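FAQ

Q: What does a record look like?
A: Structure on top, sequence underneath. For example:
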């Protein structure tokens, strides 16, 4: 007779040898674990997969599926990180290009012309709008031509402040005699602009020719009207505090229409001779 004890098959005639230390088991006796395979159960054997196609991955244990998901998520995060790095690099390169362009623009010499309190106009040399020069010339002609004993000193000081140093000395010297006459004889002049022509040379200097009509008064009595031509050379200068215009007068002449025609005819004759 036999009995099963903890999956160990022990014959009846040798039961008790292993439990009694005074009775050692015979040398031919060996204990052996009898498992499902020894008993003939086929389910105890592991069958090798015939191929990858025969595997049913849907029945994989949860820990294997979880590990595969982690690997897939890690790869996805690596791809996303790579894309973000490329985008950041593109933005950085684009920003550096824009900064380089701004630096080049900052190196360009520019002036801020302020013809009025609320009117500011950014310009660069050689790109001054014609309207700006037109207004400046009109303002200069007004300061020179519309004078009376009350304002002549202020107006001549104003127009002299926008002249070149050499022209300023000449103007103050020649204008002092006329200023004394205006004050002594109570002379007033009203100048009306009839036409203006402004030309610019390749160096960026302007040449203005203004035809005017001048009416002269002694006291309140008009003594006549005459035509005059005012010519002035101008150049662009940096803005200066207290000055309305960023133009400097480099040359100035004031002639009657007849004298201007004679002067131009003489210049034309000299040109033809050359």
């Amino acid at each position: 007779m036999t009995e099963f004890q903890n999956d160990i098959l022990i014959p009846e005639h040798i039961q008790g040898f292993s439990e009694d230390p005074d009775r050692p088991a015979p040398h031919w006796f060996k204990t052996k674990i009898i498992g499902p395979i020894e008993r003939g159960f086929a389910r105890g054997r592991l069958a090798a997969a015939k191929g990858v196609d025969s595997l049913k991955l849907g029945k994989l244990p949860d820990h294997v599926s979880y590990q595969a998901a982690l690997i897939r998520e890690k790869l996805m995060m690596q791809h996303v990180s790579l894309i973000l790095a490329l985008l950041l690099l593109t933005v950085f390169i684009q920003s550096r290009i824009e900064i380089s362009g701004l630096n080049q623009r900052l190196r360009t010499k520019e002036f801020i012309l302020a013809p009025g309190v609320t009117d500011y106009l950014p310009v660069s040399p050689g790109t001054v709008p014609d309207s700006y020069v037109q207004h400046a010339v009109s303002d200069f002609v007004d300061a020179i031509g519309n004078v009376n004993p009350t304002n002549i000193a202020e107006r001549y000081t104003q127009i002299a402040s926008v002249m070149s140093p050499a022209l300023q000395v000449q103007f103050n010297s020649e204008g002092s005699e006329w200023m004394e006459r205006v004050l002594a004889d109570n002379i007033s002049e009203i100048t009306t602009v009839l036409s203006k022509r402004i030309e610019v040379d390749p160096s960026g200097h302007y040449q203005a020719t203004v035809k005017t009509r001048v009416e002269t008064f002694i006291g309140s009595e008009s003594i006549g009207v005459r035509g005059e031509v005012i010519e002035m050379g101008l150049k662009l200068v940096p803005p200066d505090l207290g000055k309305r215009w960023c133009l400097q007068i480099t040359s100035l002449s004031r002639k009657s229409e007849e004298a201007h025609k004679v002067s131009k005819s003489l210049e034309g004759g000299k040109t033809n001779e050359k």
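Q: Is there anything notable about this one?
A: The first strand starts at residue 2 and ends at 5.
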